[in-house]
Amino acid sequence: MIEPEFIHFKEIKDYRGGLVALEQGQNVPFEIKRVYYIYGTPANTRRGFHAHKALEQVAICVKGACSFLLDNGKGKVDCRLDSPAVGLYIGKNIWHEMYNFTDDCVLMVLASELYDESDYIRDYNDFLKEV
Ligand code: TYD
User: Fold this and answer.
1) How does pLDDT run across 59-69, given as a tens digit for each residue?
2) DSSP letters for 7-55
3) Which residue of 33, 36, 117 sits with most ligand 1 atoms within 8 Å of its CB, as the best mutation to test the pocket?
């Protein structure tokens, strides 16, 4: 069994629009060492296809929407991110794939570590062995 772990951020809204603040150790449950974002993803593209040995991440669709497949080796779940005020927590050892990107999607990801290829598990059978 696996349930998506959503983080609902406080939205500060007034006549000028909305604002969300992301703060490490407050509404983001780790020290933020890296931020990256994915955009301009063509329709029918699937990305991800990996898990991490140690990395923790929070993914936020700051514009548009996309879907996630999450897999902990015991169960799989699909969910959709379509709000700049909702984050999806992705802990270690979660196989994830992203798909069904809208044309305007900007998927921002907060990460607990710098980029490290050796932290990736890119083979699904290796992932199943790890978990
Ligand atoms: P990749 O892991 O294929 O992206 P996705 O998880 O969306 O499928 O990453 C694409 C390329 O970008 C790959 O060459 C690694 C590089 N990259 C960085 O240099 N830094 C980063 O923080 C990330 C996430 C990727």
Assistant:
1) 999 999 999 99
2) EEPPPEEETTEEE----BTTTBSS---EEEEEE-PPTT--EEEEEESS-
3) 36
109 touches 98 (CB < 8 A): no
Closest ligand 1 atom, CA of 120?
2
Confidence at residue 24, expressed as pLDDT on a 0 to 100 scale: 97
What end-to-end distance do the CA atoms of the chain give, in Å?
14
The domain spans of the chain are: 5-130
- Residue recorded with tokens 């379509």: 82
The pTM of the full predicted model, rounded to 2 decimals, is 0.97
Predicted confidence at residue 101, as pLDDT, reads: 98
Spatial distance between the Cα atoms of 73 and 4, rounded to a whole number of angstroms = 14
Nearest atom (ligand 1) to Cα of 34: 22
- Name the class of domain 5-130: mainly beta
Do 126 and 51 form a contact (C-beta atoms < 8 A)?
no
